[in-house]
């Protein structure tokens, strides 16, 4: 009787284990399916010129298709635009986000900090299309035109809560002895933060920035309202500019350029994967 | 007793009280005078308020707005409680229970971190001299002089704690507070630190919280016994250990309470 019960329990446990493994494997299926699909379709298009030349015109693409040749040109204008806007957004978002995160980590009990913390959560949950339209009202309308600046403002707003949160969380897990030791040596709170706490939290904060970048690099909706897009190489920040996700959308809408969708998608996907892996690596090696 | 009257105490508690909440006091009306260039041990069972009393001296309690410190604590006759924390902490160093060298700084920079944190710039030769002087005074120089650029966390626990003492000494404090500095260390490292403290009392007054009665007996000249926030007895260490006046002290020292 008891033998039988034990046997039943062991069988149940085995079933449970198999079930858990099965569902864990199932969650990995979409990821590999997406990667495989994009890789298979986009692999052919990757070439040196794909990264160095701007988007072809629909006419040129049509000619090439008629002649049975591969479509000339690439996504260089999108890469340049993405890098310019991301760069500007990061340069502003990193200091602002870190300072705000430091404030939140240090003042867990103040009412103002609680409100800021709540707003950060709200901002993180705000749909990107709304951030796009708000940036349109705030930046594009007063500047009387679409621009890389407007695009970077939208990306900045999207990155900010991610950087704030990662800074706050990393600072909170540092041992309090570090802060007390710094203060005991006569440092004021700002110096202890800058010279001891933030350097010690560098790994976590850097990981947060990488994840924030990989989160916004694929954003399309907010850039439609702000950067608009541009079919040739442009480095001016006060003019409309292209971005890789914008290009994917444009390629989708133009029957002649549809071939290029997969190359651009593959580039974006690989970029995000690389950033994520770098973040993982930093997380493992540098966090205390 | 005559000695304390002739020499002005460097540190003096006058009816010092510390409370975490309105109802309960963690330290109750402690009055005691600490003589210059001595080691004074603060003993007592867990939760008796000894660390709380120690942390009142360098205004560590200011970090937590709920904690109230009342009474007076005089450093060379000036009331610490009405001074700026930054000024107090430069004159009163502290060493914590767990060695906490700054993990991102080299051994060299750890020793000089007090200057960096106070925004004091030193020339290269002043820096070198300070690092050498402080590491020598904690008997760490010979062990680390070739690896000064390695991270402080690369050292062993005992070495890290000596590095933390060196870091506190670099600011040339009048008083050094130590909160169970050897409780995380092995017996050999503990012995090194104890020998070091006996040497250091020539240049700095040491106030040390310890759970270890043997340690108090070995290194301190004066001892305080605290119980439930009260200072029960304060006397020469030799007198207290051989002839305690209070029953509670006696019970603690003989292991009947602890």
Descriptive notes:
The complex is a heterodimer of chains A (about 290) and B (about 260). With about 290 residues, chain A is mainly α. In chain A, about 75% of the residues lie in helices and about 0% in strands. Chain A has 13 helices and no strands. The radius of gyration of chain A is 24 Å and the shape is flat. The N and C termini of chain A lie far apart (about 55 Å). The mean pLDDT of chain A is about 90. Chain B is α/β, with parallel strands linked by helices. Chain B has one domain (about 1-255): 3-Layer(aba) Sandwich (Rossmann fold), CATH 3.40.50. Chain B has helices at about 1-5, 50-55, 85-90, 105-110, 115, 125-135, 140-145, 155-170, 185-200, 215-220, 235-240, 245-255; strands at about 10-20, 25-35, 40-45, 70-75, 80, 90-95, 175-180, 205-210, 220-225, 230-235. A 6-stranded mixed sheet of chain B has the order 6-7-8-3-9-10, with helices on both faces. In chain B, helix 9 links the parallel strand 7 and strand 8. In chain B, helix 6 (about 125-135) crosses helix 8 and helix 8 (about 155-170) packs parallel to helix 9 (about 185-200). The longest helix of chain B has 14 residues, at about 125-135. Residues about 1-5 of chain B have low confidence and may be disordered. The interface between A and B is medium-sized, with 21 and 28 residues.
Low-confidence stretches of chain B: 1-6
What is the N-to-C order of secondary-structure elements of chain A (H for helix, E for strand)? HHHHHHHHHHHHH
Query: Residue ranges of chain A: pLDDT <50 for 5 or more in a row?
Result: none
Q: Quick one: how many beta strands of chain A?
A: 0
Share of helix among residues of chain B?
Answer: 25-40%
Structural domain count of chain A: 1
Give the name of the CATH superfamily of chain B.
P-loop containing nucleotide triphosphate hydrolases
